[in-house]
Amino acid sequence: MDEAGVRRVLDIALRFGQLLLGSQAGTADVTSTIVAVATAYGLPQTQVDITANSITVSVPRGVPGAPVSAMYLVQSRSLDYTRLQLTTDLAQHVVDTTPEPEWVQRQLDTLAEAAHPYPRWVATVGWAVMAGGFSVLIGAGPLVAVISALTTALIDRVGRILNRRHLPLLFQQVVAAAVATGVAIGLHAAGWLPDNTPMSPVVAANIVVLLSGLATVGSVQDAITGYQLTAVSRMMDILLSSAGILVGVSIAVRIGRAAGVDVQVIPDMPVVAALSVPVYMVAGAIGAAAAAIAGYASIRAAVAAGIAGATATLLFFGLQLIEINTIASSFVAAAATGLVGTLLAPRLRATPLVIIMAGIVPLVPGLTLYRGFVQLVNGQPTAGGTLGMAAGLALALGAGAVLGPLLAPSVQRELARYRHRVRSGSRRQALTRYRMPQLAGIRYIGRRSASRA
């Protein structure tokens, strides 16, 4: 292959990596896709280097001279699970069939310029339903769940306006957290709610929404698979967003105090005994499916995310009932979510990352994080321990979500062996059922002939 052909192949491989990295795919997945595409076109020794927002590929020439290298920058990262799925499908098609490079370039142009599959208001409704479902999981009643949903819809609309003005994400998080906390304080101060109505779920649910779009799973996956540079970069985004939420909560609380509004946003949530585990499962399924729709996933992927969310919720609360540690419960539930998502993905033609990311949303420690923020604002010495607990829960979720897909091949092999044994057993029973009379007759005839002789 001449140099022009090599550069064309590298351009195609880089554009695949650009779309996947912009969709918050793990660095290991992006690297393997780039190498697979390049290998399909005859470049098996392609070297890939990925940093925070750039991808560099290089191909040794095998002759005297410098290798052929190319680099792409990932300008923006817009959450679109449908684009991620279509990009993954196209990459698999390229690896399987090796079509003409010109055709692949046209398909990549179409993917890069394609609009979201749903109108933006559908995503807003998805975020709102997700917040309402999560508030139910942390003890909210119907009224507070509706307020959480409406507050999230307002924050999403405000965030889109700020995003169009190119305001950095840190300040968008500050504004969003201030709006969420301000709504809770304002409703309490105005007396528009019944007495003893907890409003902490409003803020906690919105914290989950603000953190759910970040690559928490991707950062832990990068750290585990050896891509420490991108792991640190993604973790820094999460830390900055969390700091923005802390600042927003602090501003709203202090403004309320300065205005003479003596309202304490209580960090401790009462346990609603009337809610049973099936109700939690339904809330978790609805929240996970809504999170997938908010990320512009397909209906099939949203259904799979709902199943994964219900599984995660059932395991988490089931382990809590038998007094298992919260971090251990989160880890086991996230691992089960990753396993279920990986097993369901091929059947529903969905990317496992979509199911996993949306499926663990009900487990995001929004309440613990909010509790730590309030304790920090109030100067309580327990704030450090609470925030450390939130960090531990987040790491447990990320590690479990990475472990689940790693267990999937072994589970699939065992399931295949079990099905093979079942089919073999059925065949033996069928052969015994239909051939045993014949064998018995042959033996009987042989014995009778021997007796005559």
TrEMBL record:
Residues covered by the Threonine/Serine exporter ThrE domain: 282-401
Transmembrane segments: 127-155, 167-193, 199-217, 238-259, 271-294, 301-321, 327-345, 352-370, 390-411
Pfam families: ThrE, ThrE_2
Subcellular location: Cell membrane
Signal sequence bounds: none
GO molecular function: transmembrane transporter activity
Threonine/serine exporter-like N-terminal domain mapped to chain residues: 11-255
Membrane topology: Multi-pass membrane protein
GO (cellular component) term, any one: plasma membrane
Top-rank taxon, per record: Bacteria
GO annotation, biological process: succinate transport
Keywords: Cell membrane, Membrane, Transmembrane, Transmembrane helix
Family indicated by similarity: Belongs to the ThrE exporter (TC 2.A.79) family.
Name of the protein: Transmembrane protein
